[in-house]
Each structure stands twice: as C-alpha cells, then as structure tokens.
C-alpha cells in the first residue's frame, strides 16, 4: 500500500510511508524499497507548480548533475520517475535530519566533533568542484546526517531553487551564509562562494552562533560586505587562523579548497579515506563492489545486465537495488568512520535518535555573534572551465 494518493503505479517498487517534510514544490516521504527492504526518501515535485514558477527545466538540470555524483558525503540519487503530474526523486534516506537541528540542539560542538563534520563537508564540496559544479547554497539546513552521523550534502536546487540576488523572496534562501560578492550582485566563478559558506558553517559548528546576523537586512548586508564578526576566545589558535582565511571579503584573496585541505587544523586526525581525493565519475562507474554484486545476483538480477548498466550509468531496477545494497553495506560496517568515533558521536548526538527526518518543516534560528573584524589572505587561482551552478 503506497498511501501516496494516486502514485501507486509510478512507485510500484516502494512501500510509501509518512511525510517527512513539505517544500516549495511538493513533499518528502519516507519509503521502503520492496526488493531490498531498505529505506529511501522520495521527493514528490508537482510539475504544475514548478511550471508556474518556471522551475521544471532547472530541476531537470540539477537532477542530471546529481545523477553523476558518487561520493560518501553527497546525498545519493537512486532514481527519478517522471509522470505527467509529478517528478519523483528517490534519494538516500538520512535518519537524523539536518545538521542545522544538531547545532540548535547542542549549541557549539567540541572541536574534534566539528572537525570530523567539516572534513566530510569539504570532501563533498571538493568533489563537486572537481566535477565543475558549484553548490552555491551551502548551509546546515542542506547538510543531512545519516544513521551513522555521516554528513551528506543535499539540496542542489532540486526543490529549493533560487535566483541570484533573490534571497529574500524565497523561504529557503538565507543570506546569512551568502558571500559578499553574491549579495552585491557581482560576477563570480562559483567555488569561492562555496568556500565562504563553508567558513560560515565552520563558525556555526565551533561557536553555536552565526558570524553574520541581524534582523535588519541592510545592517546584515553591511556586516557581510565588511567582513564584520567576532572570533570567540574559546577557539583554538589554528581554528582562529583558518576561519578568517575563509571569510575574506575579496574572493580573489580567499583561501581555496585545496589550501583548506592543507591547513594544519583540517589535517589533524584526517581519516585515511579523506586524505586522497576520490576518483572522478567516469572511473567510479567502472568500480563494482563484488560482495554487493553477489548479493544483487542472489536477489534474481542478471549479473551481466547489472554490470553493463552500472558501467554505462543507466538507471533501472537493478542499479537502484545495487546502490541501495552498497550504501547500506557501507553503513552496516560503520562506513568510513571508526567504531570509537561512532560511539562518541552516539553519545554526543543521542538526543536526535527519537526523531527521524529528511527535511523538518519547523524552522529555528541560530543566534548571532557580536561584531568584530576578521581578516586573512591567501592567493587565489582562477577557474578556466565552465561551471555548473547549483542554485
């Protein structure tokens, strides 16, 4: 029983459950994949509403981008189902919801916890940039936590599409994380905008507050454009060195993702799997996990058909089942994180185990910091290839 209001044929491979959240163009519902028994989140996007706002083609472009991505810290897109009335986007289910709610609930994180999360975020952002995609809407609301507290970059414009300079006209667009060049309406390449947003996120993780905030929007913009914020005294010396290098007003002098990776604060306790950049999407398509392949064959799928579909990046029942099994195998073995770390994270985040969500509909706000001046310079190398923009 899909309980999905007329979606039974389109979602015949899923048992659709309760609504997790409601967005601009539709809702997100939890579902169980019938063949594997694993949970997914299904975004149901209403095509009529999207056409009214001239967003359907944009959503299709973003889906095309996300289909290419295979990364442990980017939300997995399993399949997209089109009907005359709706677009069903079947995605990885993140049990513990938004990183935003974690920060609101806990306040500032211990530096080791914040670093682990930040390392995962930067790994995902770097992967996007290597594939010529700039997210442009990075914020804790768009960073989800799976059942093992791994971070997943999400919302590449699938349901929360914004136009440049229109932050105040959408419910999802927060200017608090936007770079000075964005709110000023200046031209920008893309990656340096994500670096600024990552700087704001790191500040929020370590401080439990936002560096730039004001109920008066002109005053908020003035703070952002001036780089006016305060670094709390409780931060370590290395954290106090890294954050200002990311929150440099001039994008040409802002630290790059590569330089963030090389920073001593970032390098501390860096997991082995994050020490080396992941292969590109073409290489990844040829990497097939033998144990998962055996499992998928045991479910009745043809081995040659599965391998051919995976190598050609096709979407069909076999590839959906394969990636669901692969992702859940990863989580079942504690993924990339050690057992000791997961145990400590479980203690730190145990208040979130009672609620499962992918996109909470209620919204709280992080408190603001006081004013001060931050500065830091790093050389910048320009991007020459054409970038795909996330929002």
UniProtKB/TrEMBL annotation:
Which superkingdom, per the lineage?
Eukaryota
- The UniProt annotation places ATP binding at 43
Q: Which residue ranges does the record assign to the Protein kinase domain? A: 14-266
Please name the InterPro entries in this protein's record.
Answer: Kinase-like_dom_sf, Prot_kinase_dom, Protein_kinase_ATP_BS, Ser/Thr_kinase_AS, UBA
Record GO biological process: intracellular signal transduction
Q: Which GO terms describe its molecular function?
A: ATP binding; protein serine/threonine kinase activity
Keyword set, alphabetical order: ATP-binding, Kinase, Nucleotide-binding, Serine/threonine-protein kinase, Transferase
Where is region (Disordered) located?
Answer: 353-374
Q: Does the keyword Phosphoprotein apply?
A: no
What are the UBA domain coordinates in residue numbering? 287-327
For this record, the Gene Ontology CC terms, alphabetical, are: cytoplasm
List, alphabetically, the PANTHER family matched.
MAP/MICROTUBULE AFFINITY-REGULATING KINASE (PTHR24346), NON-SPECIFIC SERINE_THREONINE PROTEIN KINASE (PTHR24346:SF103)
Q: Which family does it belong to?
A: Belongs to the protein kinase superfamily.
Name of the protein in question: Non-specific serine/threonine protein kinase
Organism, by scientific name, is Aegilops tauschii subsp. strangulata
């Amino acid at each position: 029983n899909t309980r999905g209001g007329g979606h039974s044929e389109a979602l015949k491979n899923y048992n659709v459950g309760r609504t997790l959240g409601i967005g601009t163009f539709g809702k997100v519902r939890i579902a169980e994949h019938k063949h594997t028994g694993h949970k997914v989140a299904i975004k149901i996007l209403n095509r009529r509403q999207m056409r009214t706002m001239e967003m359907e083609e944009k959503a299709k472009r973003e889906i095309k981008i996300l289909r290419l991505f295979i990364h442990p810290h980017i939300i997995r897109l399993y399949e997209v189902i089109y009907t005359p009335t709706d677009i069903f986007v079947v995605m990885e289910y993140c049990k513990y919801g938004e990183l935003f709610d974690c920060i609101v609930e806990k306040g500032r994180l211990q530096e080791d916890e914040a670093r682990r999360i930040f390392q995962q975020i930067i790994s995902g952002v770097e992967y996007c940039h290597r594939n010529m995609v700039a997210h442009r809407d990075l914020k804790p609301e768009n960073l989800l936590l799976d059942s093992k507290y791994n971070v997943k970059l999400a919302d590449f414009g699938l349901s929360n599409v914004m136009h440049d300079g229109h932050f105040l006209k959408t419910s999802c667009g927060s200017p608090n994380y936007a770079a000075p060049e964005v709110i000023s309406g200046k031209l920008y390449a893309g990656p340096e905008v994500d670096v600024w947003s990552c700087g704001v996120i790191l500040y929020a993780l370590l401080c439990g507050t936002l560096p730039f905030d004001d109920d008066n929007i002109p005053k908020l913009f003035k703070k952002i454009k001036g780089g006016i914020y305060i670094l709390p005294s409780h931060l370590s010396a290395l954290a106090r060195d890294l954050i200002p290098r990311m929150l440099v007003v001039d994008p040409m002098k802002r630290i790059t993702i590569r330089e963030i990776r090389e920073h001593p604060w970032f390098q501390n306790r860096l997991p082995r799997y994050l020490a080396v950049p992941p292969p590109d999407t073409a290489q990844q398509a040829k990497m097939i996990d033998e144990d998962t392949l055996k499992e998928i064959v045991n479910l009745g799928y043809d081995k040659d058909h599965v391998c051919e579909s995976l190598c050609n990046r096709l979407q069909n029942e076999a590839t959906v089942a394969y990636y669901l099994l692969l992702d859940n195998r990863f989580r079942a073995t504690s993924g990339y994180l050690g057992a000791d770390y997961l145990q400590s994270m479980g203690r730190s985040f145990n208040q979130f185990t009672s609620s499962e969500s992918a996109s909470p509909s209620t919204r709280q706000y992080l408190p603001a910091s006081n004013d001060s001046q931050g500065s830091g310079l790093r050389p910048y190398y320009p991007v020459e290839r054409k970038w795909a923009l996330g929002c």
